[in-house]
Amino acid sequence: MRSRRLPLLLLAVLATCLLAAAASAATPDQPQIRGVVLEGGIDPASAQFVTHRLRDADRAGAELFLIEMDTPGGLVTSMRDIVKTMEAAAIPVVVWIGPSGSRAGSAGAYISAASDYLAMAPGTNIGSATPVGGSGQDLDAKIRNDAAASIAALASEHDRNPAAYRAMVTDQLNLTAGEAVARDVAESIAPSRDALLRQLDGRQVGGTVLSTAGADVQIDEMPWYLRVMQVLIDPNLLTIMFALGLAAIGFEIFHPGAVVPGVVGAILLLLAFAGLAIVPFNWAGLAFIVLAFALFALEAVVSGFGALAAGGIVALVIGGLILFDETAGPAVSRPGLIVASLALGAAFTLAARAAWRARRAPVATGWASMVGHVGEVRTPVAGVGGQVFVDGELWAARANGARPIPAGRTVRVTGMHDLVLEVEEDDAPAGDDTPGVSPGTTRP
Hints:
Helix content is 48%, strand content 17%. By secondary structure, the protein is an alpha/beta fold. It has three domains: 27-226, 2-enoyl-CoA Hydratase, Chain A, domain 1, CATH 3.90.226; 233-360; 366-425, CATH 2.40.50.140. α2 (44-60) runs parallel beside α3, α10 packs parallel to α12 (283-302) and α10 (235-254) runs parallel beside α14.
């Protein structure tokens, strides 16, 4: 009977699950609104955050994707990644510049122009989208004209005022929320996210009539690990971490067993590679930095009279300068790079040379290391027998001379045979306070 009931029970459970699934499928889906909070600079880490979340929302068929933005601008390459993902999305992308006091400067203006609907909170502004180099220098007319055409094309595609957006690049135009709506740069003013969603309910955006009433809203903030990456991808920090990592690994090679430099160097190199995996870089720059430390190491080994070390410093400076493209984002500080290269090159060369000399120096081991040490006689030492206390240990000993050495006298080790010390009476008696001479120590 039990064997017959078990299949019936399994069928009942399966039927219940199928009915529950069917009932769930029959229930109307609640509108899903997904979005992100985009604060701070536009960089590879924030671009990765926005694009991944937008693609996930697009695949899930969300009602819309909302970007709550407050940014002074950022890298052109990262901004273009975000804009391309927005343009490729099948769901509407809404940008809200808020809360009050926020701004959409530079790269933020391009993202605003690419949105299907743009709202601004009172007390916000948009504009000043003129591209500049990594060191803050003005770029040539060719790059400015390309940027102006790009933002104007985005504005025109989304039925906004292309002339106003073009002026943000050519004339550094900056508009308040009210001015932006009046000049057809933004669609509306929304003091809060909830107010924006009420405005969007029933409105056609991006070819879709939105239903935002009672929607399930999920707005994500940037996770902690991407915030860490935002710190790590600073070009100056990446260059320093990579160089210090190589220096620490090199020190461990010249001084094996130190452990700490090797561990620290490995961690610094891994952090540098993690940052370089996100930031566009030049392989030639990395090659020059590796060459620099190879030259420092050769200087320590072959004593190149400073020529190899000087070449290493030059290679380190060149590598730091060409590692990142100044026109695409922040550049390495040139004065800081030169000072750091001089200090790092000198420190690594001196430390490696000292370690190399220490490794090549003769080392006394075994019984030879005991010769010259001073100890105290504990039991009388004669030609055979007796004990002395040397270096914190009690040793069997015999006297070199025919005259026995009484207990309490100070002796000096002259040799060892079969773990028996050969000693002779020292000039200083036991208990002498002569500096550098005491039981268990060696006279200088």
